[in-house]
């Protein structure tokens, strides 16, 4: 470095073990804080990363540029950093850890060079510097904890959060029930004819269940629901069904006798041809997975550091439904996480290897641990009261002591934490009894003498029975429940939410209301330690024009009150009143200076200000929540800003703005490019796009996403040989109109076809229309968007036909409905659409009038299409109007 004109002393000469090559790469190691060893006389100020450490990373770039000093270079200095990211984990890191750094030259010029540099801590792959998001925005979402009741929460979720699903098909369930009762009666009759054996295991319980089902057959036969057209015997003998539950019923029923007599293995029957996998992938389970995920996403908005534990995770169907709601791509390689930990547990570790592979993208937040929920979790290495959410999907019913299992789940939860279960809550469901009653785990429950009564119904409980058990075990009971179907014969699954509760404590507190500012009120009202509700901003903004006396009163309230609830209107989600945001700034400033929740700014909607009863009820929910926290009974709720929307309090969070970050990146980053072969021999699937419409130098070919995924049933893939260009493509490129791609028609050779394509074959020459852009090496379109082309027609000619002729055909036949003898005026008759329209109009036997903009175009229309010269008018001005009226005797 000194030979290059850069002489650094001991404080800056930090790199060691430097390696390099002649192609602009270099790597080295350095200690994070070895500068401290040389600064023994000075006291170190706390910092995330020391300036000399940053400077040393720039020295590495010089090593890459000069090939370790072997290549002479002019004297150069570090002058600009485009982006930098420094991990906050470096702050307070103990000791003097080792870092490894690498630098790659990305641009070399006569006067300047550019580099990418990354540094990681020894033993990790986590970078201490990298590019990150630059743009953020406020995201307001509902705070479920501030809703007045579980009914309000349920209704909000159903209206605003949960997607609408089709209810399960009742006909399919009727068919499954008809087959189920048929198989039960058929096999039971056979066993009784042979003498019912005593197996001494769960099969005895299963046979008793069969006998009860037969004695109560009226509950199960579809005839009791008005379906006299379904015969179980006939359905069992019919071709194999395709719906997952019905398939499973059919398969189990066919093998039921052999399973009970030991001639067939129940696990082999259930898992043959993915029967159980398909069952758990059915729509009814997707409905509940979506609801659990969407519900937890709202909880994660309030607390983006959720700790979640799943009991009995098994193959991962619940985790697969929940995690995409909590970890998702923000664009540009940025990932947004709204949890800090997801513990994947099961009584068997055999599931973990496949789960690790399946959920590899979530490895940064996911851990795997064995957990037997029927034993004390603490004795198995779990921390008591650690988790915000415990998930249990179809698992707690299959334990020997349900109370012990629920108490174990309760011990894992923080006070106020949520237990979210998905359970079969219809003990009368013969379908599930027939299938899963054949598993020993179905009959594990043995507890007796509890406050709940289980009337010989197997392991399944109704929602009301779950409510009683949960209250016994330290939960609030069933706070919310979502069924897959409200009609009992068709209902199977219920999602249940319960809250971990603590014995409530009570303490006295005072609430003061301020509706006017006066020095005398400030002097006589003692608000020390009280919760103060300030309504000053409801009529007009006080902070917009505040005098010295008023500011002293406001300061007294903010500094003396334990909590100042500052109520305003018109701010938050849709800021209708800019003055309301003065309150937001005021609240943030006080909270920053006090270092605690001093001011809570709540913005009411105008409807709630006009309706005092509604507004008071909304403020009461806030005061109740504040009171909970003061008494130590709360869940750690600490908000400083609230905004009402549609009768529900919403809370803001700062989140990366993915679309804005991508837009900024496209404008400031130089896109990488590389040569690429395009033509008949090219197999790379790329498409023309433009990064910045209006800037033609940003036109470039990009990879087509999902190009290799399987074709849809009626879809074909075409290797593009020629594409046409029209005025719309030009206008899109110039930024004059929006568009998704370039080229709306083309011609090529079919390379792949979907399984149900009937009119095309691989290798066929076709012309096509495409909405995704024909300026591609390959396109995927519906079979209906293609048409065969003659072997003698060049691809360039075929590519020019589809759009112009489709436009002309649609206009003439479907809009104008042109008939023989009628007249037609075709503007720009020498253009692509114009020529197509001329040919179609001639075929229809119409009298044709055209306009043209030059003599060359007039000659084309006369010589090629036989248009009489007197029927050709100018398109350069409005004179054609008089000419056409004259030629048609005023008819037009």
From TrEMBL:
<dbReference type="InterPro" id="IPR013217">
    <property type="entry name" value="Methyltransf_12"/>
</dbReference>
<dbReference type="Pfam" id="PF23114">
    <property type="entry name" value="NAD-bd_HRPKS_sdrA"/>
</dbReference>
<dbReference type="GO" id="GO:0016740">
    <property type="term" value="F:transferase activity"/>
</dbReference>
<dbReference type="Pfam" id="PF08242">
    <property type="entry name" value="Methyltransf_12"/>
</dbReference>
<dbReference type="InterPro" id="IPR013154">
    <property type="entry name" value="ADH-like_N"/>
</dbReference>
<dbReference type="InterPro" id="IPR036291">
    <property type="entry name" value="NAD(P)-bd_dom_sf"/>
</dbReference>
<dbReference type="InterPro" id="IPR029063">
    <property type="entry name" value="SAM-dependent_MTases_sf"/>
</dbReference>
<protein>
    <submittedName>
        <fullName>Polyketide synthase</fullName>
    </submittedName>
</protein>
<dbReference type="GO" id="GO:0016491">
    <property type="term" value="F:oxidoreductase activity"/>
</dbReference>
<dbReference type="Pfam" id="PF14765">
    <property type="entry name" value="PS-DH"/>
</dbReference>
<keyword id="KW-0808">Transferase</keyword>
<dbReference type="InterPro" id="IPR049551">
    <property type="entry name" value="PKS_DH_C"/>
</dbReference>
<dbReference type="Pfam" id="PF08240">
    <property type="entry name" value="ADH_N"/>
</dbReference>
<dbReference type="InterPro" id="IPR050444">
    <property type="entry name" value="Polyketide_Synthase"/>
</dbReference>
<feature type="region of interest" description="Disordered">
    <location>
        <begin position="220"/>
        <end position="244"/>
    </location>
</feature>
<dbReference type="InterPro" id="IPR042104">
    <property type="entry name" value="PKS_dehydratase_sf"/>
</dbReference>
<feature type="domain" description="Enoyl reductase (ER)">
    <location>
        <begin position="694"/>
        <end position="892"/>
    </location>
</feature>
<dbReference type="InterPro" id="IPR020843">
    <property type="entry name" value="ER"/>
</dbReference>
<feature type="compositionally biased region" description="Basic and acidic residues">
    <location>
        <begin position="220"/>
        <end position="232"/>
    </location>
</feature>
<dbReference type="InterPro" id="IPR056501">
    <property type="entry name" value="NAD-bd_HRPKS_sdrA"/>
</dbReference>
<dbReference type="InterPro" id="IPR011032">
    <property type="entry name" value="GroES-like_sf"/>
</dbReference>
């Amino acid at each position: 470095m000194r030979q290059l004109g850069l002489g650094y002393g001991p404080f800056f000469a930090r790199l060691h073990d430097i390696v390099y090559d002649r192609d602009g790469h270099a790597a080295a190691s350095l200690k994070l804080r070895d500068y401290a060893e040389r600064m023994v006389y000075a006291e170190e100020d706390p910092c995330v990363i020391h300036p000399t450490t940053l400077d040393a990373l720039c020295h590495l770039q010089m090593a890459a540029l000069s090939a370790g000093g072997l290549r002479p270079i002019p004297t150069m200095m570090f002058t600009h950093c485009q982006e930098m990211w420094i991990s906050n984990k470096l702050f307070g890191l103990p000791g003097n850890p080792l870092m490894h750094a690498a630098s790659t030259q990305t641009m070399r010029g006569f006067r300047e060079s550019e580099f990418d540099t990354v540094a990681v801590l020894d033993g990790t792959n986590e970078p201490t510097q990298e590019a990150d998001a630059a743009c953020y925005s406020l995201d307001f979402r509902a705070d479920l904890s501030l809703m007045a009741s579980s009914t309000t929460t349920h209704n909000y979720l159903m209206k605003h959060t949960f997607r609408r699903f089709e209810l399960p098909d009742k006909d399919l369930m009727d068919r499954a029930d008809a087959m189920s009762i048929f198989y039960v009666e058929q096999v039971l009759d056979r066993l009784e004819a042979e003498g019912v054996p005593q197996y001494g295991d769960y099969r005895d319980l299963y046979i008793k269940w069969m006998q009860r089902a037969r004695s109560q057959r009226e509950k199960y036969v579809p005839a009791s629901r008005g379906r006299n057209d379904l015969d179980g015997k006939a359905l069992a003998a019919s071709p194999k069904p395709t719906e997952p539950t019905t398939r499973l019923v059919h398969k189990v029923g066919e093998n039921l006798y052999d399973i009970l007599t030991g001639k067939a293995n129940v696990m082999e029957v259930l898992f043959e041809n993915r029967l159980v996998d398909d069952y758990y992938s059915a729509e009814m389970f997707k409905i509940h997975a979506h609801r659990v995920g969407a519900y937890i996403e709202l909880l994660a908005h309030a607390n983006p550091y959720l700790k979640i534990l799943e009991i009995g995770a098994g193959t991962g169907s619940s985790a697969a439904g929940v995690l995409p709601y909590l970890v998702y791509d923000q664009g540009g390689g940025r990932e947004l996480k709204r949890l800090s930990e997801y513990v994947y547990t099961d009584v068997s570790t055999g599931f973990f290897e496949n789960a690790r592979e399946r959920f590899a993208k979530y490895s940064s937040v996911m851990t795997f641990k064995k957990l037997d929920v029927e034993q004390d979790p603490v004795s198995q290495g779990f921390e008591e009261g650690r988790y915000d959410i415990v998930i249990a999907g179809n698992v707690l019913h299959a334990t020997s002591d349900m109370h012990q299992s629920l108490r174990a789940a309760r011990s894992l939860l923080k006070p106020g934490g949520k237990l979210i279960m998905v359970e079969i809550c219809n003990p009368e469901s013969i379908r599930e009894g027939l299938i899963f009653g054949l598993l020993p785990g179905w009959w594990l429950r043995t507890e007796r003498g509890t406050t709940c009564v289980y009337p010989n119904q197997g392991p399944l409980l109704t929602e009301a029975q779950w409510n009683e058990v949960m209250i016994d075990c330290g939960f609030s009971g069933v706070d919310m429940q979502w069924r897959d179907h409200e009609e009992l014969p068709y209902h199977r699954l219920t999602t249940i939410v319960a809250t971990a509760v603590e014995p409530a404590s009570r303490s006295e507190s005072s609430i003061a209301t301020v509706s006017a500012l006066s020095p005398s009120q400030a002097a006589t009202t003692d608000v020390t330690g009280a919760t103060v509700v300030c309504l000053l901003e409801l009529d007009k903004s006080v902070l917009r024009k505040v005098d010295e006396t008023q500011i002293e009163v406001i300061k007294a309230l903010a500094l003396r009150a334990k909590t100042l609830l500052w109520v305003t209107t018109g701010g938050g989600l849709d800021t209708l009143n800019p003055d309301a945001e003065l309150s937001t700034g005021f609240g943030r400033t006080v909270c920053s200076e006090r270092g605690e929740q001093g001011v809570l700014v709540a913005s009411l909607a105008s409807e709630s200000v006009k309706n005092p009863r509604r507004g008071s009820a909304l403020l009461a929910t806030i005061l109740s929540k504040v009171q909970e926290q003061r008494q130590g009974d709360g869940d750690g709720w600490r908000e400083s800003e609230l905004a009402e929307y549609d009768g529900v309090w919403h809370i803001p969070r700062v989140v990366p703005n993915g679309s804005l970050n991508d837009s900024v990146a496209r404008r400031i980053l130089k896109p990488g490019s590389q040569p690429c072969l395009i033509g008949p021999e090219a197999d790379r699937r790329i498409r023309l796009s433009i990064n910045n419409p209006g800037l033609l130098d940003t036109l470039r070919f990009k990879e087509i996403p999902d190009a290799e995924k399987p074709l849809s049933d009626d879809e074909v893939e075409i290797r593009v040989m020629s594409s046409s260009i029209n005025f719309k493509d030009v206008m899109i490129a110039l930024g004059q109109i929006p568009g998704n791609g370039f080229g709306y028609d083309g011609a090529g050779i079919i390379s792949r076809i979907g399984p149900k394509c009937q009119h095309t074959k691989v290798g066929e020459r076709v012309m096509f229309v495409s909405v995704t852009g024909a300026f591609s090496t390959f396109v995927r379109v519906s079979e209906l968007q293609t048409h065969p082309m003659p072997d003698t027609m060049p691809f360039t000619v075929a590519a020019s036909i589809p759009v112009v002729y489709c436009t002309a055909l649609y206009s003439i036949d479907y809009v104008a409905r042109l008939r023989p003898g009628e007249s037609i005026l075709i503007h720009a008759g020498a253009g692509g659409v114009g020529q197509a329209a001329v040919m179609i109009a001639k075929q229809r036997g119409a009298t044709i009038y055209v306009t043209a903009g030059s003599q060359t175009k007039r000659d084309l229309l006369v010589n090629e299409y036989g248009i009489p010269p007197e029927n050709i008018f100018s398109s350069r001005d409005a004179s054609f109007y008089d000419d056409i009226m004259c030629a048609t005797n005023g008819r037009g």
